[in-house]
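stage 2 :: seqdesign
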């Protein structure tokens, strides 16, 4: 995933495992807002999620308790980037479903 240009206040989709596994819709990213970016070399990003998740905190008082996590730039996607990725995933899922139907048809023909 390419490095993206983000700033405090940006709305993002968080794909960090804590967000994806702990949200109301497991397996899906959670929308949030960037509430801080450290100046350190490893550049940690504070994200306040739109819903609470297990293991979340308040990012050292920057955000709402049980809604925040620290992550890296590879763990967030701008909405436009997420929509493009979601379209790719939906297309791949549709192709997989179509192939599954074809396999089922072939199996039924060969069994009968």
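stage 2 :: out
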């Amino acid at each position: 995933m390419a490095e993206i240009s983000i700033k405090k206040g940006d709305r993002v989709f968080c794909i960090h495992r804590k967000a994806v596994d702990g949200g109301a819709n497991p397996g899906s990213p959670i929308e949030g807002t960037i509430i801080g970016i450290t100046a350190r070399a490893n550049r940690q990003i504070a994200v306040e999620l739109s819903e609470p998740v297990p293991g979340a905190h308040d990012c050292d008082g920057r955000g709402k308790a049980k809604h925040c996590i620290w992550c890296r730039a590879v763990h967030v996607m701008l909405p436009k980037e997420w929509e493009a990725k979601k379209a790719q995933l939906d297309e791949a899922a549709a192709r997989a479903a179509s192939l599954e139907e074809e396999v089922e048809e072939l199996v039924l023909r060969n069994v009968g």
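stage 3 :: structure notes
- Residues 79-112 form one domain.
- Helices lie at 17-22, 79-111.
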